Amino acid sequence: MRRRSLLAASALPFATPAALAQGGDFPSRAVSMVVAFPPGGQADVVARPVAAALERHWRQPVPVVNRPGASGELGNASVARAAPDGYTLLMALSSLAVLPEAARLFGRAPAYELDQLAPIALFTADPTVLVVPALSPWRTLEEFVAAAKARPGSISYSSAGNYSALHVPMAMLATAAGLDMLHVPFQGGGPALTALLAGQVQALSSGPGPAAPHIRDGKLRPLACWGAKRLPEFPEVPTLIERGFPEAEYYIWTGVFAPAATPAPVREALRAAMAAAAADPELRRAVSASGNTLDHRDGEAFAAFFRNDSARLARAVQRIGKVE
């Protein structure tokens, strides 16, 4: 009996994290939250208060790891290939569903497939906002569209990269309105916003969170949003749908994913922790202050949302076609 007890004790240090997690000890160490973009973009803005709330709940570190590159493809793929033990998570944007479809459009093998990632919890799902510098000559969407039509190729806009969550909505508008604009891709939403503020480009489809402080400070002017209804934060800003572009509907959502092979008990523990984080008063204040709307969903509710949005975005990519 004593020998068997000693053997069992000596085996504990070599137990896998997943095995320990199934025993109810998850997490027993730091849990990394990967953001596939540089700091300052929509995913980063949401990931940081979520990570802080999880740290309070778990009493374990939850570092946010920015891993930018290839419009988010590199960071997304790194989590898809990570050990399925719950210790590496992804705070993804809606572009997660777009990038594999875009790769196939060009005849390339995708860096990851959607079935390699398991949806855990949705946190926000806001429409992007068309913003221009406050000193620009355009005060309405109609003026912006008229200028783009009058001078094809002359109006530039930044994005987080080809087929990113900031590029697709602008491509939708260009297709719907028959516009020819100059696309200037960056490695993330933060750099794309910085370029707009610095006057390097003239427009941006931004997540509401990163843009909100600059709108309030009078540095940026919102012209329209891509939602089915107006944003509560900016009720005076019209939707593209109500301005005559019914196809231009897009939501930049943020959600947490784990590698698909993560054991069910670990996924359940993660979902419970995300629900606790979503109820955290400090997280709620931080999300609201950032200009986003908390929209927590998990389980089948998030899975169904992800399936439906992925299918809609795949059709949008086909309409946009190849973007070099």
Automatic annotation (TrEMBL):
Key word Transcription present: no
Pfam family, one: TctC
Gene3D superfamilies per record: Bordetella uptake gene, domain 1, Periplasmic binding protein-like II
Residues in the signal sequence: 1-21
Domain of life, source organism: Bacteria
Keywords, in A-Z order: Signal
Family note: Belongs to the UPF0065 (bug) family.
This protein's name: Tripartite tricarboxylate transporter substrate binding protein
Taxonomic source organism: Craurococcus roseus
Species lineage: Bacteria, Pseudomonadati, Pseudomonadota, Alphaproteobacteria, Acetobacterales
